[in-house]
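Field reference: sequence -> structure
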Amino acid sequence: QFLASHGLSRAKAHYWWRVIFSEREKARLMGPDLIRACEGYSPFDTFDAWFGRVEGASFLDRTLFVDIKTWLQDDTLVKVDRMSMANSLEVRSPFLDHRLVEFCARLPTAAKIDGRRQKVILKDRMRGRLPRQILARAKRGFNAPTRRLGRNRINRDVAGSLFNPDFRLDPKTEDVTFKSFSLAILDIWLGLFAEYQHSGNWK
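Structure field:
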């Protein structure tokens, strides 16, 4: 994923980390009707517009701002809220207190990242309060266990004219974890929509 962003602008390279299907893959996955309906639309335009709002800031601060306005509020926080509430839990994110966010936004870059050392001010403040192994341990992802739920194609019965049922993922040539999970969710949604069109009810 990192190497595939070579040659892109800095803004597009940052956006590339959020991409699951490449433009070429989407062209093979989408049917002619959907391709026509999406003509002239690019998801990057949303990212680019937010980048444009903070042109005078450092690149790090611009990417943090864009992440807050896109990935954080439209993806991560939505998933956490829905899944926690579905299990009768109320999640709190103390680092997202607006006063703390505003304070951190005004900090110089060196207080946030210094070479390969990340979260500088937080780790400095917690030194002596948290065990050294906690402060020094590598960053870990927080991904859902989706591998077993994935599918390598869309069900032909629900693909309709919007998607190409002959599209296939090949787990022998790449890690298809996120792609296969996306196809599984899309397949479920298309099935629900097909049922709604048939009966008028969402099930």
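Note: Residues 20 and 90 are 30 Å apart (CA to CA).
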